[in-house]
Each structure stands twice: as structure tokens, then as C-alpha cells.
Specification:
With 596 residues, this protein is an alpha/beta fold. It has 17 helices and 16 strands. The chain has helices at residues 3-23, 54-66, 70-78, 89-104, 169-172, 202-209, 222-248, 298-309, 365-384, 401-404, 406-415, 425-428, 475-482, 503-507, 523-527, 540-559, 575-579; strands at residues 108-133, 137-139, 141-143, 154-161, 180-183, 252-256, 293-296, 315-338, 349-355, 392-398, 417-418, 442-443, 450-455, 463-467, 492-494, 513-518. The strands form 2 sheets. Strands 1, 2, 3, 4, 5, 6, 7, 8, 9, 10, 13, 14, 15 and 16 form a 14-stranded mixed β-sheet that branches. It has a two-stranded antiparallel sheet with strand order 11-12.
């Protein structure tokens, strides 16, 4: 029996006692009877067997697989608008285009919602570089997001700078004026001896379905905590290095691209994201990077690096042309609906979405144009079939996901609730999206009417199953929904958590939020935040399957008699106590007492 239902038993007994007492009162007693106890729809016992409308399954499959428009949406968004960095003019275009397109396909109440101030508006206009001496060569690179411009093409001697600690700054003081600085260690470039394009095997899916029982499951493992602390210390140093380069008046900075899975970060592929920016929050006016910065494909960087290490004089000409479009740009989410029709359920909501923003090196196709156009295709499929959902179906396309789930977190805070963030010293230095909440969770009325949220944000690989995010009660429901979809490759339900995207904003406020299991394809190896993240990397057949499967999930959630079951409400105010070590060791001396 669900815990929430158990909590109702004492209240029910009390109501029964009051009723019995009222029966013994004189007939002339005008005392009003106690109002009935409010029933929590999430505490109701779920049916053991789901009622599936297989005719609706067939119609959705036919429309989604045989009459798809998902690639029409994709080329319009990715080719027609391009990369969509949060706060940029292209992000604004994408918000407006998605709003207007959702209206055209028949959705109602399509609008933009302001989730708050973001920071600097920015766009890359042009970036190029070439080696001038000892040979001429074209370099493959782009500006890092929020980099300032050079003053037209500038030529400078190349110098490699290695700074591991603040004291290393003294080594280069007074030596970098007008130089083109190589900043970042040259990494190994392994041969590509494994496939960059992968799909899950049946064995891997079976392993994924098994829930791992590991030490430290309630928080970050110690090794990961140590790596996080090391990274944060490095980022604090980066802020000082960025200011040092500005004070030294360097001409420009070139960084090496990181690698991808299976050695995918080679062959001219480079990754241009937070890891390449010279600062933690370069989109804030008071943290703005003051020197031009570009990230280069490892082969371009490698030649410059090896020549300088061999003490060969090298000069590079570089032109970084960018534009700042505002200091205090706001972020917006695109929202639209198919209204519910059931008189008792129409105010309840099922949500579907993905993040609309992207990085700049490609056109944001797999991350996460795919998730956005799939969500739009879900709405188109349901509208084309003239579905009359019992609950309202709402699409939300977020921005600011890449900088910290800003759009979905802002939406959740405005509509559903929030909890205060920890101000502990080890937490205050982290970005907001990584900080613990201290609670208590303060909820708003809308939180109770959201049945669930379905998200796509792992590229364009077809759906193989779904993560329950630890919602054990929903696993048997999803298994029944998926049974008629096994021929599409949808087979796996896992109770594991998966992180890194917008369903977490719903989970944090007690709303069922789900991310699907998707085939990896070349997402982690080649396209994630890279110059290869273009329409060519989308798999049309997979996108049709994703939209069809997600439309069926959304349809089932909107039509079933009961809301989707929820996990127990989060209580972040109790987490600190739960993390404390039990004092059970015989003979142990409390830390406050001196040892003998």
C-alpha cells in the first residue's frame, strides 16, 4: 500500500468517529457535519491492468511512421535558423518560430514565457585563422561562446603557455603582449579503431535494466566528489588566468578541442562548449572574457604546439568577428497546448518537451534540435488525428539548458515550487544547478495537476525504453504501454536515474519526469556540442520512431483514468541528517571530546 494512502487512514478513522458521535446527538442539534477529507489523486491505488486503446496506437503509428513531418521541422529549425545560443538573436528567432509553427499546426495558447534575466546576448559572425610562418596552413577553429572580437585580422608570434597554479603566472608576466597564446595541454589522439556510431545490444539493455546497488548511492561517490572539487578549483584559476591574459594584452588565445568517445574528437571535429570558454560564466557582464578566444581542431592545434615545443618560430594570423547584442538579455520558453476535454480531468496536464537552445559550432541538430522537433511532431500527430485528450497536453521548449537547466528550472519555480539552495562553503562555490537544496520544498497549486513530463535529449537515436527515475510504481505501467511497441525496438524499463537534462527540474519538485533510453549513435563520439552537430547527423527513421513512441506515451498519460503515480515528495531539509554517519562503533570517542 502506498505510504500516502497509509497516511490517510487516521484521518478516515477520525471522520468515522465524528460521524458516530453525530448520530448520538439530539435531533435538534444543528451542528454541521465535518467536511469530507480531501483525497490526494496520487495516493489512489493504481489499476493492475492498463486499459490500452490499440486502435489509437495503430493510428498514431500510421501517422508518425508513414506521414511524418519531423524532418521538415528539423531542416526549418537547424538550417533555416541555425545555432541557438541562449540569449542570442537566433534563440529569439527559434522561440518565435516554434510559437508560430505550433499555432499553425493547431495548438492553442502558444506563447513565450520569460524565465528571467540570463545575461549577454552574443553571436559569432566569422572566425578564421592561418599559420603564416614557417609555412602557410589553414587552421580549423571557431570562437568560443561570448568571446570578444579581435580588432580585425591580427598577426602574432605563437607561444605555448602552461599554467597549473597561480604562481605560474609570474613565469609569463611581461612576455605575452601581442602574442597568440596556445593554452591547454596537447592531448593524445588515439586511432579511431572502434565504431563512432553505436546502438544498444540486447545484452547492454539487459544490464541497463538491472538496478545497480552501489556505495554512496544517495549522493556523489567520493571519487566523483574529488574530481568535482578539482574541477571547481581549476575553474577558479581559469578566471584569474583570463584576467591575466587581458592584463598582458595578448592578441588572442587558441585552445585545443577535447576528445569524444572512442577517439571521435579528431579528423577535424572539435567541441565548443563550456569546457572551451575561458571562464565559468562568460555570459555575465561582470564575468565577461576580455580577450578573443578560439577552440581548434586537435590536428590544427597539434601542429602549432609541436613547432613551438621544438623552438621553431611560428606566427599566426587570426580574425575573430563576434557581436554582443545586449547586456541583460532574458530567456524564454515556448509553450503551447492541446486542451483537455474531460469535465473532471481537463485541468490536469501531461507535458512533453526538450531544450531549444544549443551551442554554436554546428546547428544544434542532435543537441537538442532533435528533442525539440520530436516534441513538435508529437503535437502535430495528435492534432492531425483530432485527438480529444481527457487531460490537457502541453509542450514546453526550454532555453538555458546548456548553462544549467535555466529554462525548465525557472518554469518549475514559477509554476510548481522550489527550495532554497545550500549556502554551505563547499556548495556556494558551485553553479546553482549543481548545488544541493536545503528545503523545505515550497509548492504551488499547479504542482498537483501535472501528471508527468516526458523529455528527449540524447540525440536522434531511436527509443529503446525509459528511465523511471526511481519511480518504482510506474515501472509496471510503462511495461504494459511498451508491450505493443516491442516491434519498434522499445523493450527496456529501468529504475535507474539519468541526469543532465530538463526532466530533473520536474523531479526536483515532486513531479514525475522521464527521459527515454535512446541508441547512442555518434552522439557522445562526434556530435555532442561539436561542429558536426548538423542535420546530416540526424537519423530520419529514428526520429520518426521517437515521435511515434513519445506520442503514444503522452496519449496514454492523457487518457488514463488516474494520474501517473508519484515518488514520495522530496524533503531536501532532511538530506543533511540522512548523510550523517551513524555513531555505532564500540569505544568510539565523540569528536567534541578529547581522546585519551
Amino acid at each position: 500500500m502506498p505510504l500516502k494512502l497509509l497516511r490517510l487512514i487516521p484521518a478516515a478513522c477520525l471522520v468515522a468517529a465524528l460521524a458516530a458521535g453525530a448520530a448520538e446527538k439530539p435531533k435538534g442539534d444543528k451542528t454541521k457535519a465535518a467536511p469530507p477529507a480531501e483525497v490526494d489523486p496520487y495516493a489512489e491505488v493504481q489499476p493492475a491492468t492498463e486499459t490500452l486503446d490499440l486502435t489509437a496506437y495503430q493510428k498514431i503509428r500510421d501517422e508518425g511512421l508513414n506521414h511524418s513531418h519531423v524532418m521538415d521541422f528539423a531542416t526549418a529549425l537547424m538550417d533555416g535558423i541555425g545555432p541557438r545560443l541562449t540569449g542570442s538573436p537566433n534563440a529569439k528567432k527559434a522561440n518565435e518560430w516554434t510559437r508560430d509553427t505550433l499555432t499553425k499546426i493547431g495548438c492553442e495558447n502558444a506563447h513565450l514565457e520569460d524565465w528571467g534575466e540570463f545575461g549577454l546576448g552574443w553571436q559569432q559572425l566569422n572566425t578564421w585563422a592561418r599559420m603564416v610562418t614557417p609555412d602557410t596552413a589553414i587552421l580549423i577553429l571557431q570562437a568560443t561562446p561570448w568571446s570578444p572580437s579581435t580588432s580585425g585580422p591580427v598577426t602574432g608570434d605563437v607561444v605555448y603557455v602552461k599554467i597549473d597554479s597561480e604562481k605560474d603566472l609570474d613565469t609569463y608576466k611581461g612576455k605575452l603582449a601581442g602574442k597568440v597564446v596556445l593554452f591547454g595541454a596537447m592531448r593524445e589522439v588515439p586511432p579511431v579503431d572502434k565504431a563512432l556510431f553505436e546502438r544498444y545490444t540486447e545484452k547492454e539493455l539487459e544490464e541497463l535494466a538491472e538496478f545497480p546497488v552501489t556505495a554512496g548511492g544517495a549522493g556523489l561517490p567520493p571519487a566523483m566528489q574529488a574530481r568535482l572539487q578539482e574541477r571547481m578549483a581549476r575553474l577558479r584559476l581559469i578566471d584569474k588566468i583570463a584576467q591575466f591574459f587581458a592584463d598582458e594584452k595578448v592578441a588572442a588565445v587558441i585552445e585545443p578541442s577535447r576528445d569524444g568517445k572512442n577517439g571521435g574528437g579528431s579528423g577535424g571535429t572539435f567541441f565548443d562548449d563550456n569546457g572551451a570558454t575561458l571562464g565559468r560564466t562568460p555570459y555575465l557582464a561582470d564575468k565577461q572574457v576580455k580577450v578573443p578566444v578560439a577552440v581548434a581542431a586537435i590536428e590544427s592545434y597539434g601542429r602549432l604546439y609541436r613547432l613551438t615545443e621544438a623552438h621553431v618560430p611560428v606566427t599566426v594570423q587570426i580574425d575573430v568577428e563576434t557581436k554582443f547584442t545586449g547586456d541583460h538579455e532574458h530567456g524564454f520558453d515556448t509553450v503551447a497546448e492541446i486542451p483537455g476535454t474531460d469535465p473532471t480531468l481537463k485541468d490536469q496536464v501531461v507535458m512533453v518537451g526538450g531544450h531549444l537552445d544549443s551551442w554554436i559550432a554546428g546547428t544544434g541538430a542532435t543537441d537538442n534540435g532533435a528533442g525539440s522537433v520530436v516534441a513538435m511532431e508529437v503535437m502535430r500527430i495528435l492534432k492531425s488525428l483530432d485527438v480529444k485528450p481527457r487531460r490537457t497536453i502541453r509542450i514546453a521548449l526550454w532555453t538555458g539548458e546548456e548553462q544549467g537547466l535555466f529554462g525548465s528550472r525557472g518554469y518549475a519555480k514559477i509554476h510548481f515550487g522550489s527550495a532554497a539552495l545550500s549556502t554551505a562553503p563547499d556548495q556556494a562555490q558551485l553553479p546553482d544547478f549543481m548545488r544541493r537544496t536545503t528545503g523545505p520544498l515550497e509548492l504551488k497549486p499547479e504542482q498537483k495537476v501535472i501528471s508527468g513530463y516526458f523529455n528527449i535529449d540524447n540525440g536522434s537515436g531511436k527509443i529503446r525504453g525509459i528511465y523511471t527515475q526511481g519511480n518504482y510504481a510506474i515501472a509496471p505501467i510503462f511495461e504494459q504501454w511498451m508491450a505493443p511497441l516491442k516491434d519498434l525496438g522499445v523493450t527496456t524499463v529501468t529504475n535507474r536515474n539519468t541526469g543532465g537534462t530538463d526532466h530533473l527540474s520536474f523531479d526536483a519538485v515532486g513531479i514525475p519526469g522521464f527521459q527515454f533510453i535512446q541508441d547512442d549513435l555518434d552522439y557522445e563520439s562526434r556530435t555532442h556540442h561539436s561542429n558536426e552537430d548538423t542535420v546530416e547527423r540526424l537519423q530520419p527513421a529514428d526520429l520518426k520512431q521517437i515521435a511515434t513512441v513519445e506520442a503514444i506515451f503522452v496519449y496514454n498519460a492523457a487518457m488514463r483514468d488516474k494520474m501517473l503515480p508519484r515518488k514520495p515528495l522530496p524533503h531536501p531539509e532532511l538530506e543533511e541528517q540522512k548523510r550523517k554517519q551513524l555513531e555505532i562503533m564500540p569505544g568510539a570517542v565523540p569528536p567534541s571530546e578529547p581522546s585519551k
